[in-house]
Write a structure and sequence with these properties.
Blueprint lengths: L26 E7 L2 E4 L24 E7 L2 E7 L11 E4 H4 L5 H19 L11 E2 L5 E2 L6 E2 L4 E10 L2 E7 L10 E4 L6 H13 L2 E13 L4 E12 L9 E8 L12 H16 L1
Parallel strand pairs: 1-4, 9-13
Antiparallel strand pairs: 1-2, 2-5, 3-4, 6-7, 7-8, 9-10, 9-11, 10-14, 12-13
The structure holds zinc ion.
């Protein structure tokens, strides 16, 4: 069931901190500014459009995060402090707009870069006493006064495909701009298991009970810092009921009458695609 998802850095060695011989290793840099990534629009989709090999003044940059290594090559994110620092000939593009424009590995690295630069910029000061934090050996930050520890923020969210015999439950969210229907999703609460979150979200959003919850796959989703954990579940009871605000409509769909659903950039598209292929195999 597991498959590689867009934004997953499966090829990247996450070992932290930097290797001792870092100054002798080949390196590359992704420049980030306000959630955007600097690209060379003339060379899309070549990955070199955002991986700069030769930023000569990198040591003068104050906002740098080590992302990990791809083989011998060390990858860094550089947080630009103004638009004037955008390398010559490049332009800033929102991460979301790079989807489908560059290869998956570079897109995943860009997603990690945007999140770690955001962490660097939002963890400069202690949220409890407001004084500057210190950087730890393990990527974390620590307040020297109250010992508060800060690590990159990650928000787990469950995403659940619910089946009833040969039909799938799909819902239309008020957040979707078009007529897209998708599977049910929501954030995990503190103190909650993933399975409980799946049951709760399906009940809250469409009023149904589910059973046989099984793991499908996970996907980092850097908008801004989610980790989507995908499940498949079976219908266990209840009638569809939507609140009309968060969820506008929900219904059971057979494979032959599926509405528009998300593409395979997201795990929701992979879940529905799995359902379609499962039916194909059976028929
Ligand atoms: Zn503090």
């Amino acid at each position: 069931m597991c498959q590689r998802m867009p934004f997953s850095n499966d090829d990247l060695d996450f070992t932290y901190p930097l290797p001792a011989d870092f100054e002798n290793r080949p390196s590359c840099y992704i420049c980030v500014y306000k959630g955007k990534v600097a690209i060379d629009p003339l060379n899309l989709p070549d990955h070199q459009t955002i991986l700069h090999e030769d930023i000569k003044d990198v040591k003068t940059k104050r906002i740098v995060q080590y992302l990990g290594s791809l083989g011998e090559k060390l990858c860094y994110a550089i947080g630009l402090e103004s638009q004037e620092e955008v390398p010559y000939g490049m332009q800033l593009v929102f991460l979301r707009d790079l989807m489908g424009q560059i290869d998956d590995r570079t897109l995943a690295l860009a997603g990690r870069a945007v999140q770690l630069i955001d962490f660097e910029l939002t963890s400069k000061f202690c949220g409890r006493c407001g004084i500057p934090t210190e950087t730890l050996e393990d990527r974390g930050k620590k307040c020297p006064k109250c010992d508060l520890l800060i690590y990159p923020r990650l928000s787990p969210a469950v995403i659940v495909l619910v089946m009833q015999e040969d039909k799938v439950l799909l819902a239309r969210s008020s957040h979707f701009s078009s007529d897209i229907y998708s599977v049910i999703a929501g954030f995990v609460e503190p103190g909650e298991t993933l399975e409980h979150a799946a049951e709760r979200e399906v009940m809250e959003e469409v009023g149904l009970k589910i059973k046989n919850i099984r793991y499908f796959a996970s996907q980092p989703w850097p908008f801004p810092n989610s980790l989507m954990i995908g499940f498949i579940a079976d219908y266990a009871g209840g009638e569809i009921r939507v609140d009309g605000e968060e969820i506008i409509d929900a219904a059971w769909f057979s494979r032959d009458e599926l509405p528009n659903f998300p593409g395979k950039a997201s795990i929701s598209g992979h879940l529905v695609d799995w359902f379609v292929k499962k039916e194909e195999k059976r028929s």
